[in-house]
């Protein structure tokens, strides 16, 4: 993920724009994540955006946006936004039924302009959230883009109702703190949709999450949004039809005074066509139209002027490239097909697996600044020591002795006996080394991660790094133990678990407690920890649920010191109820559960008191993974025999 220091530099001139991609090459590489996808400058002959699906390349031309008045930062955000559209479409085509879903979707968008607008508005939420997660530094740019360029006004009551609905779906989550005035009937429909939820997750939130597949988003859109949209559209058509009839009647009765012209009203000048305003469209068909969308030609033109789309996915050339990609997929190698089959069996896409793998490869290089060693290597050294000490008993050789089981110096024995020495030291004995009996046989680590809104940006990015590094390290340890299982005298099983907290919607398990770490679980943790939109800090609720899920058998093993259970909380602020946290901590610690917390940056300092005596602060957010690994090492040492 691009870091704060990698923010694209502002550019303002032909030469600077020409060098845009060379200057930010590393930024684009880090942003893409998946090595199978790239962003490259558009060739001069193209002059705009383009795609190469077979090579996974988006050809971008930032001047498409800067020529329309976008600042360089806004052009960067818009370019990444288009890349996410490209990524999403390619992922859909890579799904088993994706080709058919894409073709049906494309046909619908071509046949009805209004549905194209709804789809683009709703899909843009997901694209924008994905950009903000991958490049948090551009979040303020997103806000200014929507406030200054795309939705500069707050009152939309004079717009057609169906467009108010589409615009509200997009504008509200992008400008959450700004007012948006809608017609009462549109507001009522939005309120009803926002009230729909399942298992504590709101429909609109779930459908626009970055990890929600396009196929699922389209299904939810078709089932819940389109019926409302179509109802509002029909109401708009009826209203415009009546207006058209009235206008026609006035025209017929007033033809004698045809020379009487009025000045255009405020807001109906040329400039108003280039920004989305609260002014109604001027043009209307003179009478009944065969295509009801004709009543909204100006409204739709205004939308296109304000929301330029550099890639027309219904363009014949784009369609040809898509068809070519689909045919090429049918000729994939057996190895590639096997990879895709594996991904499908795991419940994820191949591109998601590759993206995660590329991400983790970067984490493996993370160094501890104090020791100069790689963090994961330091953990591996402890793993090796634990495994070595738990292997079956060995026999220590002792020699030379006056008696033993093995004669190791026969020649010296003969000489010594002939010389009258009755007990020469020519024997060897093997002493059986018994290992201590009281050892933990199970080791559970639960990471509890903060997904509240204050975590957005670098804190969320570093928390994700730290969590995934520890998950992968402990999974490697578990696999090593399995490889040595037949040689171990003392059993040891390692399980991991990840929980989130924030508001009530964020309090849930992200990775269940087990020795497993499937591809789906990896992708789930990777994606969920990038989302930090919680409106509270309900850490106590997550801790209570974790405690309640411990079985009676596990409590007995903890009591008998056969199971070491460790819970580590990551948080960047004050708990919503510190007293409840402390009550749960007291109960857990009385039952021999180890629980600690790391406060992230100075804002996390309350964790020291709330989780005392095992609360600490990591003031440098970039060192969070190192601090978490050091804390884990302390608990791992409890598994050693020679502490």
Tell the overall outline.
elongated
- Uncertain runs are 1-14, 258-274
Percent strand: 5-15%
| CATH architecture annotation of the largest domain | 3-Layer(aba) Sandwich
Mean pLDDT: 83
Radius of gyration: 33 Å
Fraction of residues in H or I helices: 40-55%
At the fourth level of CATH, the homologous superfamily of the largest domain is: von Willebrand factor, type A domain
The largest beta-sheet arranges its strands as 11-10-9-12-13-14
Span of the ends, CA to CA: 39 Å
Task: Walk me through the structure.
It is a single chain. With 643 residues, the protein is α/β, with parallel strands linked by helices. The chain has four domains: 128 residues, no CATH class; 176 residues, no CATH class; 38 residues, no CATH class; 198 residues, Rossmann fold, CATH 3.40.50. The protein contains 25 helices and 14 strands. The strands form four sheets. It has a six-stranded mixed sheet, sandwiched between helices. Strands 1-3-2 form a three-stranded mixed sheet. Strands 6-8-7 form a three-stranded antiparallel sheet, with no helix packed on it. Helix 7 crosses helix 12. It is elongated. The two termini are 39 Å apart. The N terminus is likely disordered.
């Amino acid at each position: 993920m691009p870091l704060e220091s990698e923010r694209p530099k502002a550019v303002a001139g032909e030469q600077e724009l020409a060098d845009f991609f060379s200057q930010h090459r590393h930024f684009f590489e880090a942003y893409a994540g998946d090595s199978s996808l790239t962003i490259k400058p558009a060739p001069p002959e193209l002059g705009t955006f383009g795609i190469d699906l077979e090579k996974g390349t988006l050809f971008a031309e930032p001047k498409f946006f800067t020529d329309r008045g976008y600042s360089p930062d806004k052009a960067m955000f818009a370019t990444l936004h288009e890349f996410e559209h490209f990524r999403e479409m390619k992922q859909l085509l890579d799904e088993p039924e994706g080709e058919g879903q894409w073709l049906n979707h494309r046909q619908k968008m071509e046949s009805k302009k209004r549905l194209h607008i709804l789809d683009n508005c709703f899909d843009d939420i997901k694209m924008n959230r994905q950009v903000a997660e991958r490049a948090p530094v551009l979040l303020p740019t997103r806000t200014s883009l929507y406030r200054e360029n795309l939705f500069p006004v707050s009152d939309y009551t004079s717009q057609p109702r169906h467009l108010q609905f589409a615009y509200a779906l997009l504008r509200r989550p992008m400008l959450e703190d700004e007012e948006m005035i809608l017609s009462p009937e549109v507001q009522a429909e939005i309120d009803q949709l926002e009230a729909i939820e399942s298992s504590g997750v709101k429909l609109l939130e779930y459908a626009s999450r970055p990890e929600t597949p396009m196929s699922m988003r389209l299904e939810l859109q078709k089932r819940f949004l389109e019926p409302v949209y179509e109802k509002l559209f029909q109401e708009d058509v009826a209203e415009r039809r009546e207006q058209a009839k009235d206008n026609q009647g006035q025209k017929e009765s007033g033809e004698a005074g045809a020379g009487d012209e009025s000045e255009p009203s405020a807001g109906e000048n040329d400039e108003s066509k280039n920004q989305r305003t609260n002014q109604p469209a001027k043009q209307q068909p003179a009478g009944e139209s065969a295509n009801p969308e004709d009543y909204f030609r100006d409204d739709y033109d205004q939308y296109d002027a304000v929301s330029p789309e550099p890639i027309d996915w219904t363009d014949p050339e784009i369609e040809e490239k898509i068809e070519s990609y689909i045919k090429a997929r049918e000729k994939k190698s057996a190895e590639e097909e096997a990879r895709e089959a594996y991904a499908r069996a795991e419940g994820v896409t191949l591109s998601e697996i590759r993206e995660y793998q590329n991400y983790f490869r970067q984490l493996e290089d993370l160094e501890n600044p104090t020791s100069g060693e790689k963090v994961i290597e330091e953990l591996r050294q402890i793993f090796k020591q634990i495994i070595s000490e738990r292997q079956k008993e060995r026999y220590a050789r002792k020699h030379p002795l006056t008696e033993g089981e093995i004669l190791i110096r026969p020649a010296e024995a003969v000489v010594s006996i002939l010389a009258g020495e009755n007990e020469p030291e020519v024997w060897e004995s093997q002493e059986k080394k018994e290992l201590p009996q009281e050892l933990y046989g199970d080791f559970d680590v639960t990471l509890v991660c903060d997904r509240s809104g204050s975590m957005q940006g670098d804190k969320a990015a570093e928390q994700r790094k730290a969590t995934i590094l520890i998950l992968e390290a402990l999974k490697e340890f578990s696999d090593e133990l399995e490889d040595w299982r037949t040689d171990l005298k003392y059993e040891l099983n390692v399980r991991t678990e990840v929980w989130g907290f924030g508001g009530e919607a964020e309090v849930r398990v992200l990775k269940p407690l087990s020795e497993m770490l499937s591809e789906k679980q990896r992708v789930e943790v990777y994606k969920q920890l990038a989302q930090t939109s919680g409106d509270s800090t309900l850490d106590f609720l997550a801790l209570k649920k974790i405690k309640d899920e411990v079985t009676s058998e596990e409590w007995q093993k903890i009591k008998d010191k056969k199971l070491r259970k460790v819970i580590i909380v990551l948080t960047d602020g004050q708990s919503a109820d510190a007293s409840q946290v402390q009550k749960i901590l007291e109960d857990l610690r009385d039952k021999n559960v180890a629980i600690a917390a790391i406060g992230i940056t100075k804002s996390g300092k309350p964790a020291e008191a709330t989780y005392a005596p095992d609360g600490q602060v990591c003031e440098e957010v970039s060192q969070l993974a190192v601090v978490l690994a050091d804390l884990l090492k302390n608990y791992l040492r409890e598994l050693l025999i020679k502490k």
